[in-house]
Each structure stands twice: as structure tokens, then as C-alpha cells.
Amino acid sequence: MNDLRKMKLVKSRTNKMLTGVCGGIGELLGIDPTIIRLIWAALSLAGGTGIILYIIAAVIIPEDDDIIDAE
């Protein structure tokens, strides 16, 4: 249960191309961020929804160093 509390969605500092959103999601889910990027690209090509979602995620998801550990 403690491991679930430590898992937080943050932008990746090491695995990023633009802002680190896909890298952070990939690290959280334990999958290759390239798969996340391909899904995001498909959403972007299918009506532009992916672009809007990416911008929202880039604003909402905190940077890795912005997280303050409560312990």
C-alpha cells in the first residue's frame, strides 16, 4: 500500500521530447513512453483532440522537482 502512495504522475526529466508528459505517463504505467507518444500522435491526427489534451496535461502535471515529500 505504501508503494501506491509514492507513485505520482510527474513530468519526466530524463525521458522527454517536449515537456516530459509522455515520459512521465510511461514511467508511471511501467511501459515504453514511445507507445504513449504513438497513442498521443494518433489522437492528434484524429481531429486534434490529442493536441488539446497534451497542452492541458503539460500545464496540470507537475515537474518532478515540484513535488514536496510529506514524510
Describe this entry's structure for a reader.
The protein is mainly α and 71 residues long. Helices cover 55% and strands 0% of the residues. It is built from 4 helices and no strands. It has helices at 2-6, 21-29, 33-45, 49-60. Helix 2 crosses helix 3 (33-45) and helix 3 crosses helix 4. The relative contact order is 0.19.
Describe how the helices and strands are arranged.
Blueprint (H helix, E strand, L loop, with lengths): L1 H5 L14 H9 L3 H13 L3 H12 L11
Helix pairs in contact: 2-3, 3-4
Condensed summary:
This protein is mainly alpha-helical. The chain has helices at residues 2-6, 21-29, 33-45, 49-60.
How much helical structure, as a percent, in the residues? 40-55%
How much is the average pLDDT? 84
Q: Main beta sheet: strand number and arrangement?
A: none
Category from helices, strands and their pairing:
mainly alpha
Number of extended strands: 0
* Strand portion: under 5%
- Write down the overall geometry: globular
State the low-pLDDT regions, or none. none
Number of continuous helical runs: 4
What is the rounded Rg? 13 Å
The arrangement of helices and strands along the chain is: HHHH
Gap from first CA to last CA: 15 Å
Say what oligomer this is. single chain
